[in-house]
Design goal:
By secondary structure, the protein is an alpha+beta fold. The chain is built from 3 helices and 5 strands, in the order H-E-H-H-E-E-E-E.
């Protein structure tokens, strides 16, 4: 009898973010795993907590913050991983999405 182990979508996304060379957007993750972008953001919240807990604080979900493509405003104070809909400075909706990866907290 062959024993099979199946990874959940969160486990697969976590492994992907640990192995990826550079930061990736939620849109990239959604395309890779064939899920909706809002679902990816929900998974990322849980992945951030799990990675920190399971590594004893040694690893973390890193986020390159979103940035307004029009005026350059950087959304530094986000509490949750998400793509803002509008720039608070210039009101532009042309926002560069956040990008993610998992790395050691050295």
């Amino acid at each position: 009898m062959v024993e099979r182990t199946y990874e959940s979508i969160r486990e697969r996304i976590t492994r992907f973010l640990e192995e990826v060379e550079g930061p990736v957007s939620a849109e990239d993750i959604a395309r890779t795993f064939e899920v909706d972008v809002p679902e990816v953001y929900i998974h990322l919240e849980h992945i951030a907590k799990s990675v920190r807990r399971e590594s004893g604080g040694g690893k973390a979900l890193m986020m390159t913050p979103p940035m307004c493509r029009k005026c350059g405003y950087i959304f530094k104070d986000l509490e949750k991983p998400k793509k803002p809909s509008k720039c608070p400075r210039c009101k532009s909706e042309w926002i560069e999405p956040p990008r993610f990866l998992i790395r050691s907290r050295e």
